[in-house]
Specification:
By secondary structure, the chain is mostly beta strands. It has helices spanning about 10, 175-180, 245-255; strands at about 30, 40-45, 50-60, 65, 80-85, 95-105, 120-125, 140, 150-155, 165-175, 195, 215, 220-225, 235-240.
Length: about 260
């Protein structure tokens, strides 16, 4: 699948070399958008009226989506857009929805802690029209620990050969277990990190999957944030823990 964003290149010198992001969701299964109609693509303007996939995003209401804070090197809304209702990464026929507001978590710091408070809220200029291909997902506010079966989804990187939405089955682990399996400098925050692993070192999330959903029983529990190793590693991946932000931050800013 995916994971990083443009600004990550600015912080590589300050974090462990182990925190390297793979090029895409590897070993995933291609899925139809009707199976996961809440998945969206955050796109960045790369030319004259040309938008390319940058990160994953998740529809949580007709006007609001969630994604990773790391996806934004700027909060200039006209530099970004949202596409929905398609499982194609760069579907040129899909309408690009204008963004009214980008709200990166106020405690997010790309330079000192690029994966802490890794959450952003997107408000659209106009509400989405829901149908079988475009729907919101409910949020599960439970603080999950280990051994929870989940699914994560992503479109893959900008330059890889993945062209359609991929899904990957994973299982969560406790933060203590996660911390014991990754490099000491890999960020595992008690408050905001939820770790998970597919159980297969060839099945990984990777570049440009950041902001995509982690779901359990068709409810959102996390957002893709980081991957500490390349394909072939047995180390877990990190997700932004939605339960830590739902009541106090997400609801507050959905006005």
């Amino acid at each position: 699948m995916l994971v990083s964003v443009c600004i990550l290149g600015l912080v590589f010198d300050s974090i462990s070399a182990a925190v390297l992001l793979t090029p895409r969701i590897n070993g995933g299964q291609e899925v139809q958008i009707q199976q996961f109609p809440f998945v969206a693509s955050l796109r960045e303007l790369s030319g004259t009226n040309q938008y390319k996939h940058l990160c994953g995003a998740v529809i949580i209401s007709e006007k609001y989506l969630l994604t990773a804070a790391q996806c934004f090197h700027s909060q200039q809304v006209n530099w970004f857009g949202i596409t929905v209702g398609t499982n194609k990464k760069n579907d040129e026929t899909a309408a690009v929805h204008a963004i009214k507001r980008i709200l990166v978590h106020e405690n997010y710091d790309a330079f000192t802690a690029p994966f802490n408070y890794d959450i952003a809220l997107i408000e659209l200029d106009q509400p989405l029209k829901f149908n079988e291909r475009v729907k919101q997902i409910s949020i599960n506010g439970t603080f999950f620990e280990g051994q929870v079966e989940a699914i994560t989804l992503g479109f893959g990187g900008v330059y890889d050969n993945i062209t359609k939405l991929q899904s990957l089955k994973v299982k969560t682990m406790t933060n203590a277990e996660c911390r014991s399996k990754v490099n000491k400098l890999t960020p595992v925050y008690d408050y905001s990190t939820l770790c998970a692993y597919s159980g297969n070192p060839k099945q990984r999330i990777g570049h440009n999957d950041a902001g995509g959903p982690l779901i359990h029983e068709n409810k959102l529990i996390g957002l893709i944030s980081w991957n500490p190793q390349v394909v072939g590693s047995e180390k877990p991946e990190g997700f932004t823990r939605i339960s830590s932000y739902y009541e106090g931050w997400i609801k507050k800013h959905m006005t």
